[in-house]
Amino acid sequence: MTDIKTGINPLFLREEELRQGIELLFYAYRDFTAEPDVILAQYGFGRAHHRVIYFVGRNPAMTVSELLGILRITKQSLSRVLGQLVEEGFITQRPGTRDRRQRLLELTEKGIELERQLTERQRTRFARAYREAGAEAVEGFRKVMRGLIDEVDRPRFPGRR
Amino acid sequence: MTDIKTGINPLFLREEELRQGIELLFYAYRDFTAEPDVILAQYGFGRAHHRVIYFVGRNPAMTVSELLGILRITKQSLSRVLGQLVEEGFITQRPGTRDRRQRLLELTEKGIELERQLTERQRTRFARAYREAGAEAVEGFRKVMRGLIDEVDRPRFPGRR
DNA sequence: CATATATGTCAACATGACTGACATAAAAAC
DNA sequence: GTTTTTATGTCAGTCATGTTGACATATATG
Question: For residue B19, which of A114, A119, A62 has the smallest C-alpha distance?
Answer without folding.
Answer: A119
